[in-house]
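Objective 1b of the project was to move from sequence-level analysis to a structural picture of ligand recognition. The entry below was assembled by the postdoctoral researcher (A.K.) and checked by the PI before modelling. It contains the amino acid sequence of the target and the SMILES of the bound compound, adenosine-5'-triphosphate.
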Amino acid sequence: MLQVENLKVNAILEMDQVKIEANKVTCIIGKSGSGKSTFLRLLNQLTSPDEGNIYFKEQDITELDPIQLRRMITMVPQTPVIFPGTVRDNLLVGQTLSGMDPTTDSQLMQVLNRMFLNKSLDMPADDLSGGEKQRLALARAMLLSAEVFLLDEPSSALDNTTATEVIDAFTAFVKESNKTMVMITHDLQLAERIADATIDMNQYSLSLDRKEYSNE
Ligand SMILES: Nc1ncnc2c1ncn2[C@@H]1O[C@H](COP(=O)(O)OP(=O)(O)OP(=O)(O)O)[C@@H](O)[C@H]1O
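Corresponding predicted holo structure:
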């Protein structure tokens, strides 16, 4: 579904051939600073490589309109983007922007419940805690018609139990709707449990201290 060929971002990463399969969960692991977020940002053109190509369904992504590309490949950043307004406004913002019919309140409550967010749709979104905002951003992503979800450490502000529940629920959503998920995580146990495939950025990194990495 996504394929990388001879990709280079100067001084940050170099990847010869990497494939991400459709309808699978791929976890991105690696040390802090190894280039995990950079790799994710390359996949929906938030960053451009210095060399090489990225293909989405065999088409070079530079030939696609970035806005359209991001409708198909959507990113949930580590720090959630929360817009002024209520929880409802925030859930509907992607749909409004892409001209989709807004979802009913009962459907909105369903996605909130799936993300274990037991809050009123009328609550100002800015009053949510950091971890609640992350779950709101994940619930919002579930309402989009994207094919690929890029998740950058989606559970970084959640305690372990909530993180497990939320990631498992999002993974179940991805599987049952035949979507593709690419998730950065520091949690190797989590990666082992949910990933169909794992990409270890340490091996592609130009930014790590190589001495430290090779333990010499
Ligand atoms: N815009 C930029 N300009 C210059 N260097 C950058 C830029 N963005 C990232 N870097 C550098 O590239 C390297 C990889 O950064 P990146 O954020 O991709 O790593 P990461 O693996 O996601 O790290 P973490 O786990 O700490 O979030 C780092 O050394 C970082 O300082």
